[in-house]
């Protein structure tokens, strides 16, 4: 008996994986619409929460770090600097967190019918992107107020940073989403990682504050190996550096770390897809 397609049916884990998601874009759109409807069912503000949550987060961080700890005196246009980092960690947090819970959260569908299960992880990423772009609009408007005049290279850096961030988030989401079906501890581990991610990248402080304490040795290398760190710096170079009055100094070997982040993100995506497809056949029975 063939282990592949039999009478039009495909054994879980034997399909095209993420390629099936591309081929079945209509199904993906349906899942995205379902996720958005479920999220905002009975909500008064609806999609306005895409603005409310990051706005509150920004105000809290700005006053706690910028005003009370006087970071706004150390960093010119600290509001733009801060929000450029916040949109990165918010997208990563939502995409990674929701993708981790995607299979368990759609257990009714997983147990009843077969469809490419990667649809649920990609849908979580898409929903995060839906919430990311309104924040990006706010960031652009705020940067323009502060005299934002980016070059083509800086705009390209922002696009590159978002691409790396997307690949990294999806890879981790596939990996932890598959493991979470077997071990629900994965959700708690993800929450812990997301908390660390906010502080383990230069969102609330500058990279120079890190080198002043640890230098540019082993700890600095470990710090830069986190893909979020160079991605946040790319967003800073794209949105904060071109604002009026800013004298931006790039971190040492930034482009080297960007290349490493791109390779790391790609490897994480490949690993995540391999683990996901390996465990795919067990999802229905484990749920």
Describe the secondary structure blueprint for this structure:
Blueprint: E1 5-6, E2 9-10, H1 18-23, H2 25-39, H3 49-68, H4 71-74, H5 78-100, H6 102-105, H7 107-112, H8 118-145, H9 152-182, H10 185-199, H11 207-214, H12 218-225, H13 228-240, H14 254-280, H15 283-286
Antiparallel strand pairs: 1-2
Helix pairs in contact: 2-8, 3-5, 5-8, 5-9, 5-10, 5-13, 8-9, 9-10, 9-13, 9-14, 13-14
Description:
By secondary structure, this protein is mostly helical. It has one domain. The protein is 74% helix and 1% strand. The protein is built from 15 helices and two strands. The protein has a two-stranded antiparallel sheet. Helix 5 (78-100) packs antiparallel against helix 8, helix 8 packs antiparallel against helix 9 and helix 13 packs across helix 14. The relative contact order is 0.15.
State the main characteristics:
287 residues, mainly alpha, two-stranded antiparallel sheet, 2 strands, Transport permease protein, membrane, cell membrane, ABC2_TM, transport
Proportion of β residues? under 5%
The secondary-structure element order is EEHHHHHHHHHHHHHHH
What is the radius of gyration? Answer: 20 Å
Distance between the termini: 27 Å
Short description:
The chain is built from 15 helices and two strands.
């Amino acid at each position: 008996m063939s282990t592949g397609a039999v009478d039009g049916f495909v054994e879980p884990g034997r399909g095209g994986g993420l390629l099936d998601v591309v081929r079945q874009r209509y199904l993906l759109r349906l899942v995205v619409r379902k996720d958005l409807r479920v999220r905002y069912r009975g909500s008064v503000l609806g999609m306005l929460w895409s603005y409310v949550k990051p706005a509150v987060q920004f105000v809290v961080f700005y006053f706690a770090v910028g005003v009370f700890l006087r970071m706004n005196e150390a960093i010119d246009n600290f509001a733009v600097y801060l929000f450029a980092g916040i949109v990165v960690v918010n997208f990563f947090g939502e995409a990674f967190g929701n993708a981790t819970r995607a299979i368990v959260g759609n257990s009714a569908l997983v147990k009843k019918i077969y469809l490419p299960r990667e649809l649920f992880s990609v849908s979580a990423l898409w929903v995060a992107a839906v919430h990311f772009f309104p924040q990006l609009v706010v960031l652009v408007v705020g940067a323009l107020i502060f005299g934002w005049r980016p070059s083509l290279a800086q705009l390209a850096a922002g696009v590159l940073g978002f691409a790396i961030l997307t690949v990294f988030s999806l890879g981790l989401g596939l990996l932890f989403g598959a493991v979470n079906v077997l071990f629900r501890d994965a959700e708690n581990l993800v929450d812990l990682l997301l908390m660390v991610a906010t502080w383990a990248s230069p969102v609330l402080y500058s990279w120079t504050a890190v080198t002043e304490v640890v230098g540019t040795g082993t700890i600095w290398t470990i710090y830069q190996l986190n893909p979020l760190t160079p991605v946040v710096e790319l967003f800073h170079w794209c949105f904060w550096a071109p604002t009026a009055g800013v004298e931006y100094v790039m971190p040492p070997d930034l482009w080297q770390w960007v290349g490493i982040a791109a390779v790391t993100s790609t490897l994480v995506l490949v690993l995540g897809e391999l683990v996901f497809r390996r465990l795919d056949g067990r999802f229905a029975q484990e749920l």
